[in-house]
Amino acid sequence: MPKRPAKKAKAPGSIEFPNGEKVRILITQRRIQKRIAELGQQIRADFPGEPLHLVGVLKGAVFFLSDLARSIPGDVSFDMIAVSSYGKNSQSSGQVKLTRDLDSSIENRTIIVVEDILDTGLTLRYLLRIFEQRKPKQMRVAVLLDKPERRIAPVQANYIGFKIPNEFVVGYGLDYAERYRNLPDVAVLSLPDNHAIQH
Ligand code: IMP
Ligand code: MG
Q1: Quick check: 122 pLDDT over 60?
Q2: At a CB cut-off of 8 Å and minimum separation 6, what does 8 contact?
Q3: What is the pLDDT of residue 90?
Q4: Ligand 1: does its nearest atom lie under 6 Å from the Cβ of 62?
Q5: For FRET with 81, which of 49, 55, 132, 140 sits at 20 to 30 Å CA-CA?
Q6: Can you tell me the distance from the alpha carbon of 23 to that of 183, in angstroms, rounded to the nearest whole number?
Q7: pTM reported for the whole predicted model
Q8: If DSSP codes are grouped into helix, strand and coil, which group holds residue 141?
Q9: Of all protein residues, whose CA lies closest to atom 20 belonging to ligand 1?
Q10: How far is the CA of 174 from the centre of ligand 2 (A)?
Q11: CB 39 within 8 A of CB 65
Q12: Which protein residue's CA is at the shortest distance from atom 12 of ligand 1?
C-alpha cells in the first residue's frame, strides 16, 4: 500500500489563506449570537418601555448593530456614524475625524453607542465628547469586544460582549486593511513570517 502524504498538523478552527495570512477562531458565530441575545435582553431590562436609539460606528459595527437591534424588544431605531483616524497610527496621534455624521438629532433621546471593539479608547472618547454636546437624555455604550490591556483613554463600556486578550482580531465586521469583515466568527489574525500588524 502506498503511504499517504503526511498531513500538516493544524490547530482546530485555523485557516490559512493563499496570501499566507492565517486566522484562528477565537469566538464562534454561535457564541456571538448567544451573547448578543443576552445583551439585548439586558438592555431592554435596563430601559423598560423606553424608545432606544442605537448609534452604530461604521464600518466595523455593522453586523453587531444589526444583530443587537433585532435582539432588543420594543421601540428601537438606529443611525450610523463613520470616523477615521488621521494617518496610519491612530495610537500615537489619537486624532479622529468624522467622515459621516448622523442623519437625525440625538437631543433628548436615549442613545446607545454601538462599537465593534474598545481598544485604546481614543475613538470612543472622541465620539462620546461629540455626542455629549448634542445633549442626549441618556447615553450608554455597547461594544462587542473589549481589549482592556490596550487602553489609553479611560473609556468604559456599559455593555460588553466579550473581553479579549491583546491580540489583533478580524471577522464579524472587524477588518485588516478592509479584509476579513465577512468572516462569521471573530478570529485572531497572524501575518506570514511574523510580520507585525500595524493598527
Ligand atoms: P480605539 O480607538 O483604539 O479604541 O480603536 C477603535 C478602532 O480600532 C475600532 O473601531 C477598530 O476599527 C480598530 N481596532 C482596534 N483593535 C482592533 C482589532 O483587534 N482588529 C480590528 N480592528 C481593531
Ligand atoms: Mg477598523
Answers
A1: yes
A2: none
A3: 41
A4: no
A5: 49
A6: 10
A7: 0.91
A8: strand
A9: 169
A10: 6
A11: no
A12: 60
> Residue range 145-170: average pLDDT?
97
Q: What is the dihedral of CA 95, 85, 62, 43, to 10 degrees?
A: -20
What is the distance between the alpha carbons of residues 34 and 53, in angstroms, rounded to a whole number? 22
β-bridge partners, 78: 54
Asked if residue 81 lies in contact with residue 55, where contact means CB atoms within 8 angstroms, the answer is yes
Q: How many helices (H) and strands (E) does the chain have?
A: 4, 10
Q: C-alpha grid cell for residue 66?
A: 444589526
Q: How far apart are CA 35 and CA 144, in angstroms?
A: 9
Q: Report the amino acid identity of residue 137.
A: K
pLDDT digits (tens, 9 = 90+) for 13-71: 789 999 999 999 999 999 999 999 999 999 999 999 999 999 999 999 999 999 999 99
In this structure, the strands spanning 96-100 and 76-85 are antiparallel
Catalytic residues: 119
Instruction: State which amino acid sits at residue 180.
Output: Y
11 three-class SS:
coil
